[in-house]
Design brief:
about 280 residues, Beta-Lactamase, 2 domains
Length: about 280
């Protein structure tokens, strides 16, 4: 729904948030010649994946009304809290962010951690297994998982409906992964209740996948992912990685960091993915 687009207030808000954001907050080095407080406009524009000229016009109060996805990108780039994000949408002329855009907003705390993990294999996941953000190495390991829409945004949905979702996991891991996906979704449905996004996803999957329906009927709960994960990468071959998990309980988001034991073949392969990134594996 539309609201009044307040150019002047939007520009002032962007300016103050840019000034409050320090280079260290986004993983940048503070140069000796930096005099102005906060980040430069071009730095913020890069964080928001937009041109510096476009961001400058918005900040000066003479830019066009940004689209809702653009406002969401600005909220992420400026590391806004949920309240600040909602305020930004109101100033931009939208009564509230769409549900899909709200669910894509990564918490500022996890964003700060991700800013310091650019050379690591890590990604941020939403409450229903939506991949919200990936480092280049994570894309090289798992593929780009951030571009899906609808129910396919959920890793559980893709696991049971798209055979390609299982290709990068060792075949011996498939059965256990299926059971854990179902158990975690059942726990979410119990917690969130009927009519929730998790309940809707479970209903869709019961109709779409015989395997899911069979496992759902077992009523298993309390299963957890193993810290050790075995992958079957199409280019570098098998890898055995450890997965550390950091939870953000307020927004139901989690940070996954993949590592390997130093000196092992998996460590060398993961280092290769980290150095080469996605270009060599497209």
């Amino acid at each position: 729904m539309m609201n009044t687009f307040d150019r002047a207030s939007l520009g002032a808000f962007l300016s103050t948030r840019r000034a409050a954001l320090q280079p260290e907050d986004v993983g940048l080095r503070r140069g000796h010649r930096r005099r102005a407080p906060g980040l430069r406009r071009e730095e913020v524009a890069e964080l928001c994946t937009m041109s510096a000229d476009y961001f400058a016009r918005l900040e000066r109060g003479n830019g066009p009304q940004p689209s809702e996805p653009m406002v969401a990108a600005i909220a992420r780039g400026l590391r806004l809290t949920p309240d600040e994000r909602d305020h930004l949408f109101l100033l931009a002329g939208y009564r509230t962010a769409r549900r899909d855009l709200r669910s894509q907003h990564v918490s500022p705390g996890l964003m700060r951690v991700m800013d310091r993990l650019t050379g690591s294999t890590a990604q941020v996941m939403g409450p229903l297994g939506e991949t919200l953000l990936q480092t280049p190495s994570a894309v090289a390991l798992l593929g780009d998982e951030t571009g899906y829409t609808g129910h396919a945004r959920s890793a559980a949905y893709r696991w049971f409906t798209d055979p390609a979702a299982r290709e990068r996991y060792h075949p011996e891991e498939h059965e256990k992964n299926s059971r854990v996906n179902v158990a975690l979704l059942r726990g979410a449905v119990t917690r969130d209740g009927a009519g929730s996004p998790s309940a809707e996803l479970a209903d869709v999957l019961r109709r779409a996948s015989d395997e899911f329906a069979r496992l759902w009927a077992r009523h298993e709960v309390g299963l957890r992912w193993s810290e050790t994960k075995r992958f079957a990468h199409p280019q570098v071959g098998p890898l055995e990685l450890y997965c550390q998990l950091l939870l953000e309980p307020d927004q139901g988001q989690s940070l996954l960091v993949f590592t390997a034991t130093p000196g092992t073949e998996s460590h060398e392969k993961l280092a290769l993915l980290t150095v080469l990134g996605t270009d060599s594996f497209a």
